Structure to design on (96 residues):
């Protein structure tokens, strides 16, 4: 992906923190800033009303679908998961 040079202003404390992190991970300042910005995407704040309604419609559609497994199958899987957590999970031998 092509990169575009931009200019931003940071206070000295923030810049010192970025430089400290960059030195700790042995990466350029620009990489540390790019990763910080990218990691903030899921937490960008409240959704717009249109996006919230769109997501609620999707959930409503999913909830209308009939179950793909019986309640007994779900209960059995939950029991297996809880038991494996109690004894400490390990990868099954047939895991691929």
């Amino acid at each position: 992906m092509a990169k575009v040079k931009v200019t931003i202003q940071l206070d000295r404390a923030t810049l010192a923190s970025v430089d400290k992190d960059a030195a700790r991970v042995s990466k350029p300042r620009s990489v540390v800033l790019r990763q910080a910005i990218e990691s903030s995407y899921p937490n960008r704040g409240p959704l717009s009303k249109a996006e919230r309604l769109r997501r609620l419609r999707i959930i409503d559609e999913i909830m209308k679908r009939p179950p793909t497994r019986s309640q007994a199958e779900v209960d059995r899987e939950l029991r297996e998961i809880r038991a494996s957590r109690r004894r400490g999970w390990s990868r099954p031998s047939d895991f691929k």
Remarks:
- The CA atoms of residues 30 and 94 lie 43 Å apart.
- Residues 71-87 form the longest helix (17 residues).
- DSSP finds four helices and no strands in the chain.
